[in-house]
Structures are given as structure tokens and as C-alpha cells.
Amino acid sequence: MPARPSTPRELAWFKSSYSGANTTECVECAHAADGTLIRDSKRAGGPMVHVATGPWLVFIRSLTNEAPTSRTA
């Protein structure tokens, strides 16, 4: 498991601009040194998913219709 330099409370969590106004269906992301963390905004102390930087960039580029630079995980 990769080392995490910060605890989840020290990270700058943010919600997507596409999150619903009623905040019932939101995820939050935080950039970490070794990738991106994702969590349910209603369960800030709950489980998180860690995505390494490379796969995260492929995912984001796929959302913006840019050609992915890599398909490796």
C-alpha cells in the first residue's frame, strides 16, 4: 500500500461542480502526492478509494473527450 503523507482531514477535499444542489448524491475528491482519493461526502470518516495518478488522468481525459495517453493501471 502506498504511503500517504497526509491524513484525510488534512487534505483539501472538493466536490464536483456537477454535484446535486441537495447534496444527497455527492462524492468528494482530494489530490494526494501519489494519486487521488475519493470518498462519499456523507461519510467523510468512511472508506476511501485511492486511484494512482496515471489511471486518474486517463479517467479524467476520457470525461473530457481527450484521447487517453495510457491504458495501464
What are the salient characteristics of this protein?
73 residues, alpha+beta, four-stranded antiparallel sheet, 1 helix, flat
Short description:
The protein has 73 residues and is an alpha+beta fold. It has one helix spanning 53-63; strands spanning 14-15, 27-32, 35-40, 48-52.
For the CA atoms, what is the radius of gyration?
13 Å
- Mean pLDDT over the full residue set: 78
Quick one: overall form? flat
Indicate the structural class. Answer: alpha+beta
Distance between the termini: 15 Å
Strand fraction: 25-35%
Can you give the helix content as a percent range? Answer: 10-25%
Side by side, the strands of the main sheet go: 1-2-3-4
Give unreliable regions as ranges.
1-5
Number of strands: 4
The number of helical runs is: 1
Which helices and strands appear, and what pairs or packs with what?
Layout: E1 14-15, E2 27-32, E3 35-40, E4 48-52, H1 53-63
